[in-house]
Give the backbone structure.
Amino acid sequence: MAPKRPEGAGAFPKPVESPAPYQPDPSELYAALDLGTNSCRMLVAQPKGSEFHVVDSFSKTVQLGAGLEQTGRLSRASMQRTVQALRICQQKLKRHNVRRMRLVTTEACRRATNSRQFIRQVKREAGLDLEVIQPEEEARLAVISCAPLVSTKTEQLLVVDIGGGSTELVWIDLTNVPRLDRPAAIMRLHSGFNPTDSVFPNAKVVDWISVPLGVATLRDQFSDVQDDSARFALMSWFFEENLTEFSPYDREQVREGFQIIGTSGTVTTVAASHLGLKRYDRTKVDGLRMSSDQIDRVIQDYLSLGPIGRRKDPRIGRDRQALIMSGSAILQALLRCWPTDRLSVADRGLREGLLYAQMSADGVLEHGPY
C-alpha cells in the first residue's frame, strides 16, 4: 500500500516506486540509466498496472562535466570516476538479467569534443552501450515522467527539468483535453511532441526550449564572482536572458489553471527545506505543491546562511550544497517570469520517462500503449 501523502501533496494519480514484493521474472524487467553532467542514476523496474515497481536502483554523483566549461573536454579523472560507477550499474543489470533497457547520456556528452572516445571507453571497460540523446527527446522524457503529477484542473502546464548541464522547459496547453484525461494526454507525448495518430484529444506543446545552462554549468560561468549575493543575482538574471526565445516568455500568466512541475535535485532540496526535513523523505516531497512565495522564503534563507552555513545545513546535504544556489537562481528566474501557487515537486525525471516510454511502447501498462 502506498504511504499516505502529506496534506497539500495533491498528486494525481498515485506515484510509482514502491519496491517489488518478490523476485520478478527477468523477462518482465526494464532498465533506464541517465548519465548526466553531474550524476549517474539507474532504475530497474517491472510494470505493475498503469505504473511500475522499482526492483533495483543506483545513484551516484560522478561530476562527468567537471572542467567542461573551461576545456570543452571530459577530463581523464571524471571519465574514470564515471566508468567506475557504470561498472556497478552493469553488475546490477547482469544480476537481474535485464534484457530491455535504454542507457542514455545527455548534455556533457553532447558538448564534449572527446565524448566518442569516452563512449568507447565505457563499452570497453564497463560493457555498456551508451546512447547520446538530443535535447528534444530529453525534454519529452522529462515531461512524461511527470504525467502522474498533472492536476486535472490544469489548463496551462510548464514542465521544468533542471539538470547539471542544461535546463529543459516545455509549455503545454491542455484546454482542449477533458479533465480526467489530462495526465494520460501527457503520457501520450512519449511518441513525439505533436502526436497525430491518437483518437483522443491531444495535449498541445506550445513551445519547448533547452537552455545550455544547468546547476553545474551556470555555477562555473560565475565562479570568479566572490560576493555570494551578487553571484546569485547575476546567475538568475543571466539565466532569464536565455529564455527570451521561448515563446511564452512575454506572456502574462494568471495563477488560476496554471501549474509548473519542477523535476531536479534543486526543486526537491528546496521542498525538503520548506518542510524542515533533516533527513530526506521522498514520500513527503514527491508531489508536494508550493507557491512562489514559499519557494522565495527558502531561497532567501539559503542566502542568509551564506556558503559556510549552507555547507552545515542538514536539509541541503554535502552533495547538493555546492550546486544549490545556481539551481535556486534558475528556479527564481522562472518564478519571476511565471509566479504560481501550484509548483509541483517531482522526485522523478529522465529515468522514469525512459521506463514509461519503453513500457508504453510495448503495451505492458494496464491501459495498453498510450
